[in-house]
Fold these 3 entries.
Entry 1:
Amino acid sequence: VEFVAPWCPHCKRLMPDFERAAKVLDKNNIPVTFVKVNCDGPGYHTCADAKCDIYPTLKLYRNGVEERRYLGERTPKDLVRYALNMIGDHAKKLANKEEVAKFTVSDSEYMFVGSFPEETELSREFLAQAEKLREFYRFGIVTDPALVGGEKNVVLAYQPEFLRNKWESHKKVFNGDPFDLESFIQSARVDLVGIIDRNNHEDFEARRPLIITTFDVDFEVNKKRTNYVRNRLLKAASEYKDKVAFTMGGLNMTHYYAPDDRYNDTGVVMTVIDEEGWEYTVPKEIEFTFDNLKQVVEDVISGKIKGKPYREEEAPVQKKRVKRVVSSTFKDYVLNPDVHSLIEFYSPYCGHCKALIPLYNELASRAREEKGLVIAKMDATANSLPRPFNSRGFPTIYFVPKGKSVKPIKFEGDRTIEGFIEFMQKHTKEDLKFVEPEEKYLKKKGEEAPAASGTCGGETAATGGEGQCSAGKQEL
């Protein structure tokens, strides 16, 4: 269901693509119905009941019940792919080698096959992840290991056929701790030279230093040029894979990493994200050749090329349990691989951020004996945020588990002491130590503060990078 307002320019741009996707499904007798609701007209109460005040909002309903919100790209191809992924079983049962062979070349994203002759803890987690992530990936399951080369009690990840190459295997195998399965699934697409977009960029940006090459990528219309660039990236990636990561993306990612007008054409643009997460765009005058690419790589390794924040405060003296971080100290406190960290990006003008202060201070007090956890905050209006962090509203909070090249996890849940502790514990195998707060944080009976909910507007309110309008804010 597409919830729209007739005055919203983003809704107007989506309308023809939404209708094209609906026609494709109808023509192929796919049992998914596309519906549009006018939230500024007859559908006002329907939108209010669905809690839709940002347009366009797309939601999936199954048997009349809301199941989940669609956050992917809004092209006809992506909308059709989403609809196909959401029908039928969340893990398709594959009965013979022909079905396995067909399934493992059926999608433009990684495909996952679980091989489980009997039920195990890993098989249960596989089915849970298949249900959770089915909108992004396709999942299959076999009970006869012979169908997948004798592999059993494993999860196999298959690279999309059009990305397969001589420099890497097209199959990845997971047989580890079920706790790590979701991370394996989400990071599988980070190949030697994977395809980066606005939905997966955080997976790629977690591996640094990273060289992002963007241009008019198209494996169908622009196949020759696309493969010309990718083959040179693959060759360089195979030589430097232990030192530098590589990825490539389309023109929308050129605008994402290099919004300067000088780069707004179809030329090949290289952007470097250094080890600390700061960006550097290679001058447009440097033509994309294999020799120039290798020189950029060598300059990244030697430290000659480094990004830098475009704004930052002076580093403060740390006097409190909540560490106040600025751009220059971000690596020391938040990206320290030896500790876990919880980082809040706030605005000093945001009422919701102010409401969170006492609760956040109490959380830090409860964590005072846990030496492996840092509770920190950063003024996102006065400091640049390194990749892959972003703040589209305030407060925005991330948990960063200890380790190298770890993807930060955006906090989702109740902003309560219990909510924060439960979230952090869920995303680490360790038992974090929390104690009673210091006396100044103890509340008398009946004085418990309400949860600090709500969000203030940030620099961009777009979801999925494609733009949305807010109810009551008509964009003309």
Note: The chain has 13 helices and 23 strands.
Entry 2:
Amino acid sequence: MATRYLRSSAVLAKQLLKCESKHKISCQSRNLSLHECDSMGLLKSAGIAVPEFRVASTKEQALEVAEELAQKGNKDVVVKAQVLAGGRGKGHFTSGLKGGVKVVYSAAEAADLADQMIGHNLITKQTGEAGRICSKVMIAERKYVRREFYFAITLDRKHAGPVLIASSQGGMNIEDVAAENPSAIITQPIDIMEGVTDAIAERVAASAGFYDDGLTQAVDTIKKLYDLFIKYDATMLEINPMAEDRKGNVLCMDCKINFDDNTEFRQKEIFALKDESQEDARDSKANAAGLNYIALDGTIGCLVNGAGLAMSTMDIIKLHGGSPANFLDVGGGATAEQVTTAFELITSDPNVNAILVNIFGGIMRCDIIAQGIIDAAQKLSLKIPIVVRLRGTRVDDAKALMAASDLKVIPCDNLDEAASMIVKLSSIVELAKDSNVKVNFELPI
């Protein structure tokens, strides 16, 4: 079972990149995230208590489901924009509406709010200025809670497995709680072979502040959440808040789940729920092509094979005063078509002034990379500087291919020299842009 948590080097590199302060990442990780309504649906199917809810994609549907909930005695409902971003409650829509989570007191209000959310972009601290489109809303019964708790399960390198995280201070930003009151955070490493026992679940729930019948319910909920985490190959499951209502019922009021994208082959039903409209277009294209791509905020495009070499290539660009525009690992089995797609991804970023290709051919053949560069030059009419460093398998064949194609690229066998050169060329192009001077670096002679 433990092998399902082994990560590929590319995914590990992405996680490292996210934590590296010197590289600002402009798109989200490729671990699958589901909308709250889908995550809550998984909880409900696992027998975990959640507020009753419905999903609406139009104003008319919102009115219908809100009336349906009202007939069951739930006149007060919560309308939640289904957008994959944190801080929805504090965000704002391009329609002018403030807040993506609203309590309303009638079906008509629910319909009116849905109309101001659906089809409009929600802008939060995590979405960037453009925001993300809201295509549907979740309408849930309003619960009156006595106490709010925090609960999560995540994978932790330090403990080499899952860790339960809990706190009596739920319903707020857990990062703020950890910073201001670290003692309020409870962590419990889990033996992957043993799982969550009654004793472990009871210890965590009691430490968080549950007692009496609430403790019994919390133990049951924690065990079911862990089973769900394992069953669906999740990398993170967060309930904020887990609450106890006025009747003493323990419920999961909100849910966020991320899934390991390496397990798509056995989690087809989960991955079928993926909302492409919430993805960066380049990230979706990279996924479809089997490329590991992350957009950064620099000006030098990078095309490299191997996550480690990609990281070191970005570091040496930084060392010479440049800034990488992306992390792009074509892997060890890339085709010429994938290399062409890689160039399309890189050049789709208007900030890219130059491209550095750094290939160490082991499994990956240099001649395939060369053919991909040739095809990309012909298809995309590339007009920016390209420095190519090729070493290893079939490197002479690769050089012969590029020479025969009359491509005007700059070959360089030394990585340090290649990095220095690409930084200078990028600076020249940037200077020309600032001076409103058009510069074309044409590959075909």
Note: Confidence is low (pLDDT under 50) at residues 1-29.
Entry 3:
Amino acid sequence: MALNTASATFYNDLSLLKLNQFPCGSGPWRQLKEPNYLEERNPQEETLLSLQELARSEVWKIEEKWSDDISSLRNLAIKKPKLLTEDFIFSHFKCLRLIDKGINELDSGLLKFKNLQELSLTGNMLKTVAGVNLPRSLKVLQLYANRISDLEELASNPPPQLQHMGVGHNYLTNITSYLRPSTWPFLLSLDLSYNNLANLKETVDCLVELPKLRNVSLMRNPLMLVPAYNGYILDRMPQLTILDDVSISLDDRLNFTKISTLELDWNAAIFSITFPCVSNLREPVPNEPIDEANFEYPTQYEYRYFIRLHFLSNPISGERVDTAAPDRPRTSPIPPPEGSSRRVSLAPDDKTTKVVINVDEKQDEEQIVKPEIPVLRGSEKPFFEEDKCVPQDALLVFTSEEQPWNAEAPLEFNDKIIIMCSNLEGVNHFLRHPVQFTLMEKVVESHVEVMPQVPESPVSSAKGKKQAPKDKKKEKSTDCDSALIPLL
């Protein structure tokens, strides 16, 4: 990749201002003395007022988006062109916006801006920002939408008077090592939105130490998935006046008083998933009637439906986990003893789920210990082939309760799945992809077989009494089989 520095980009934009070309500069088109109406006027010369009007016309108008000081600089190039030396031009700029210019290095050429107060380098390709190369007079620094993964070089020697810093839409995962009160004494506003900050407690502990901080934005970071995330911040940072671009009222603070003192997992997200009603399904083929008089027992089919969902991590309550392989029928879970509850949990380092049955102490231990069930590792097509934040063995398949076919009403799935995940960065990446829901049709086949008549045994008892004859009615047995068919 070719080197593209910030100062080189500025020189290129400066050349587009055409400060030495008409109507600016001191060329032959400029009238050198005051006009005298008695003398004949040179048609090739323009008055100062005319040059200023021409500079604002559509023909010679220059784009001024990259600085608020361009208009005044061009005006000086018309009035006093001899003042425009290189040092004067650099000292004239107080605002500079080098946006989407492909800059990949922040060089020392920016130190020439002695009076620069606002610098925006949004939408470039910066991976690091050397604080030693930033003007010391800087008060506003915007580094949105770059490739910054750490602030080490910036925090080593930041501008001492910096009041606002925006580093949103980058790849920051940790700020605890970079934001120290001694290096950021005047920082009033900090925008960390759209990064990969996942540890709420460590992040807030770091922000609390900044003495002047009043405005913080943490939107669309993984830590925002934590329940009552804003309440925790409001309780821990009483000096804040704006959080995530929303002003904080006194009622907001009172609602979350002392919430940060609760013994909760402030680095885990909880998701509650409910399934919608399903209608307009294809109607199953009706079963043939059974004729017992003529011993006709055709195969009977029972149709049941459930929703299958791929999601990250493990459920904590109200769970229904399908652990069968995708190409095999779904097996029934181990039924818990009466008066007990079922809980499925996944240890962070394990690759199997354990079914734990909570029963009364009076019941035998044989009922408590149950075999381990292998975890289904996602679908046949992995969601994250190149995403290291979401390993395939962390994906589980959850299912809703089964509902029988009902021609008169839609299928209603009332069970709720609650999923807890402490890998906030992983679940944040997971939710950027489509979540797969599949409506499954379970077909249960019932076969009835007529058993042949059992012959009477000729052996009699030792006492000479004959055994009672067995019932001569034909016996029948029922065999069932099931299969799964994905519908959606």
Note: The radius of gyration is 38 Å.
